[in-house]
Amino acid sequence: MKMDILLGLQWGDEGKGKIVDVFASDYEVIARFQGGPNAGHSLEFNGIKHILHIIPSGIFHREKINIIGNGVVIDPLIFQEEIETLQKMGLNPAENLRISRKAHLILPTHKLLDAASELQKGNKKIGSTLKGIGPVYTDKTARNGLRICDLQSSDFRERYREQVARHIAVFEQCHFDYQAHLPAMEAAWFKSLDCLLQFPFIDSEYELHDLLSASKKVLAEGAQGTLLDLDFGAYPFVTSSNTIAAGAFTGLGLSPHCAGRIIGIVKAYCTRVGSGPFPTELFDEIGEQLRRQGNEFGATTGRPRRCGWLDLVALKYAVMINGVTEIVLTKADVMSNFDTINICTAYKVNGKIVKRMPTETDVKIEPIFTSFKGWKEDICAIRRYDGLPEALKNYIQFIEQEVSTKISIVSVGPDREATIIR
Ligand code: GDP
Ligand code: IMO
Ligand code: MG
Asked: How far is 385 from 408, CA to CA, in rounded Å?
């Protein structure tokens, strides 16, 4: 059996949580492979909205195995909050959630280091979610990190102290006032370990291999989006993990031979939270309207998301890097009020028309648009592709032709049910 991979093709928040939840009934296993509490994945069913940060979006399906892979970074405190919310809903995640012993732990000082780093960068800041992501992955690659398996070792506290001492040296060097926050943060962090320790810690690479060998269907759930990838996003305005399909193999310990479908999620327009290039960004009333109608406020930080038209130069790049086999288009319902809808098909850089993503982030990009007639019709209640307005079908057809990939699902609302499968 193959592992299918579902991931975002833009700057995150494409609707991955909703679509994983919709797909989950077709799989036996849902596994997160990278990122951590910087993610905010929303799901909606039975009139209730849920937001998950670290826990895979298959958790509401009690009979499905959910795995937090080795590529994920875990903040025990946020993990505990998520578990308690799920328990209040009558779920018992200890029954169907397993955690890789190789996943790294986010310490309280990682969060403070994130804040110190952003402060130091001033107006060049990345706009991090301040969840400690950059610092924890830095410690992982510097081979200083603490992993889930270390929680069970007798010298855990000692190794924790060694790490923190290293971090404190950095705070002192940059005159960052950590003392006001650290004691309370540490006390809460250590307390939250009790919750984490109740879950099965597994060698997830072995378990996933066994599950695939036993013909179980595995869905890998990406976090963030391709344009935030550490290598292929607009560096340094990226996150600190590989968000692309390749990240699923290192983040779960499966070979590329296991790859099945690669499902890319695309919002019908673009959004971005935090700093960094955004060629099609709208600074006018249309951008405001997208933000308002699309409720474009971060699921993790509540920050307003920057909004703009769909960017096919970026989308083609994402399809290429990931080897996307099919696309799910979300939030077309948000664009139901526009007379005209634009799609960016090329960039003008230094007077030249280009169709490739620039590597440098300081180049001025002028988007070149193709205009489409808007569909000016509420589509939220439509459940069959044939029932969609012609103008939207034209928009979909144009995207499919440009990126040479089929749009297999159209999502027309946040609820599980608001999904059109072609
Ligand atoms: P994720 O990070 O990719 O899981 O996406 P987020 O949950 O951060 O942001 C997507 C937002 O759009 C959430 O509020 C979803 O409930 C909502 N959403 C998802 N799909 C649709 C859709 O097709 N239409 C509308 N209107 N909202 C959607
Ligand atoms: P989901 O999984 C949108 C952005 C941050 C910032 C940059 C680096 O919900 O799609 P970090 O905290 O990783 O150091 O921040 O990446 N970012 C996201 N934007 N959705 C996300 O996740 C994001 N996770 C990180 O806003 O610009
Ligand atoms: Mg999100």
From this structure: 10
